[in-house]
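User: Could you go from structure to sequence for me? I need the amino acid at each position, not a summary. Structure tokens:
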């Protein structure tokens, strides 16, 4: 017997006003965290029902100047970048985490400051694009002079989920001096 895949509606077809720049699915696939108002707005995170496009209310404060959300596979935290510009083009960024428990948000916590890698190659102050390891123990992120991929220069780093043990991933970054 043939298995017919379930087709879910595309949010922008059902809810034309649901616009975002960067997004991440919750591990249970019931919510999405998205960055909204990236151009000229408050650059904040918001939560959406991925099947209807409706906003989901969460208890707690949503961080401002936030972009690049990444939900941890264990569902307990959302890593994101706090930046001085929209996610696609910022020159100053820090990696933050937002604790999540059901519909409760904890206080945002700074994990890594973009200005702390003073001897980084390439030089810069822009942390960006955090991504979790499958076991939620590590966060990989870009660091360089800008988050813009076609003009900025960056290298990949990894750190423990508490912000310790920051290591440059030389092989993934073209070598120690690239």
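Assistant: Here is the amino acid at each position, in order:
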């Amino acid at each position: 017997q043939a298995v017919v895949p379930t087709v879910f509606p595309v949010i922008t077809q059902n809810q034309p006003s649901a616009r975002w720049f960067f997004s991440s699915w919750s591990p249970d696939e019931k919510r999405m965290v998205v960055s909204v108002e990236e151009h000229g707005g408050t650059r904040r995170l918001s939560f959406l029902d991925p099947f209807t496009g409706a906003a989901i209310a969460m208890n707690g404060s949503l961080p401002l100047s936030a972009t690049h959300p990444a939900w941890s596979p264990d569902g307990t935290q959302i890593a994101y970048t706090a930046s001085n510009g929209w996610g696609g083009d910022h020159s100053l960024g820090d990696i933050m985490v937002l604790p999540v428990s059901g519909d409760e948000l904890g206080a945002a916590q700074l994990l890594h400051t973009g200005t702390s890698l003073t001897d980084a190659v390439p030089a810069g102050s822009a942390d960006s694009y955090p991504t979790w390891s499958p076991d939620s123990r590590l966060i990989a992120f870009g660091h360089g002079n800008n988050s813009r991929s076609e003009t900025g220069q960056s290298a990949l780093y990894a750190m423990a989920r508490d912000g310790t043990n920051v290591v440059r991933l030389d092989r993934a970054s073209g070598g120690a001096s690239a």
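One structural detail worth keeping in mind: The first strand starts at residue 23 and ends at 25.
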